[in-house]
Specification:
The complex is a heterodimer.
Chain A (H helix, E strand, L loop, with lengths): L1 E2 L1 H7 L4 H8 L3 H8 L7 H11 L3 H4 E2 L3
Antiparallel strand pairs in A: 1-2
Helix pairs in contact in A: 2-3
Chain B lengths: L3 H36 L3 H27 L3 H30 L9 H22 L2
Helix pairs in contact in B: 1-2, 3-4
Amino acid sequence: MKNRIKELRARDAFTQEDLAHEVGVSRQTINAIEKGKFDPSLPLAFKLAHLFKTPIEGIFTFED
Amino acid sequence: MKTTESFKELQHKSTKRLALWTMIWVLSSALATFGPEFIWENTLFTYAGVGLFLITGAVMILANRKYILNLDELQQRMHLEAMAISLGVAVVLGLGLSILEQQDLLGFKMDFAFMTIVISLTYLAGLAINTRRFK
């Protein structure tokens, strides 16, 4: 799954640590999601969407 | 919404709790093992020592459960994969060595402590690999 976390994080001037702080996970998890190594759960995806004020489909794009 | 500060605090707290109970369990293990040899001669004390070992072990297991539950989803996945590998290795290697022992083909006496070391090392190796993988 592709995502725009890095781009949205830059838009809102968040560091990975800030973002991890906001959604209650480790910085390593944010980094793994950004690099596409790990797909977040639905609750975490909703938290990110809520924080960035963007719909989930505006952040994550499914690809085979 | 849970914040990282509370997430970090929670992790720190559960890690400290697990470390403390692991230490207590190891000490109770030493007491139950060496007590009958060096401290007392009464069998009742030995039963009490083993009882203490089992109770502290149960608390350590609960502390470990709490520790795992307080991890985030990626960390839980990393631990789950490491556990799957260590459990698999323990079962396959343990049964393999057991078959060799039954046929008197094993050059040494099978000891459960050996399997504990194998489980610990494979678990640590699995975690190290996953940490690198998701870095």
